[in-house]
Amino acid sequence: TAFADRARRNVKRFRDAVRDLDGARVIGYTAPAKATVLLHAAGLTVEDVVYCVDDAPSKQGKWIPGVGIPIVGPERMVEEPPDVAILFSWGLPVAEIAAKLPKGCKLLIPLPELRMVEV
Question: Model-level pTM?
């Protein structure tokens, strides 16, 4: 019960944080399966996250299932720079990911504890 309650709280905090970014261009960074689960749990779609960047060519040109978010290559960040990138592979080193993002972009790390990092 405690685990389920904590999971619901974390998902709600994540959803609220993304929706509070109203007017910002929000993208995803990396497209693992756990991104699909988190996006569905939070009820977020392409209306909230406009695209998701993944370095793997095998994922590019596809969509995150059920939410309509296209998976694209990193060049899209040059064409349409994000204000905030959600790190869906939250176990990756933040400094490594931050170096790949455009200047001025913030990094939202949803789990294990929600936090926003200035890049």
Answer: 0.95
- Find out whether 18 and 41 touch, Cβ atoms under 8 Å: no
pLDDT of residue 22: 85
Low pLDDT (below 70) residues in the chain: none
Find tokens 């389920």 and name the residue: 4
Contacts made by residues 95-101, CB under 8 angstroms, sequence distance 24+: 97/29, 100/29, 100/74, 101/29, 101/77
What does residue 31 show for φ and ψ, rounded to 5 degrees? -130, 60
What confidence tens digit (pLDDT) does each residue in 45-63 have? Answer: 999 999 999 999 999 999 9
Tell me the C-alpha to C-alpha distance, in Å, between residue 39 and each of 11, 54, 58, 101, 110: 9, 16, 21, 21, 11
The closest of 79, 77, 80 to 102, measured between CA atoms, is: 77
Token pair belonging to 35: 């991104």
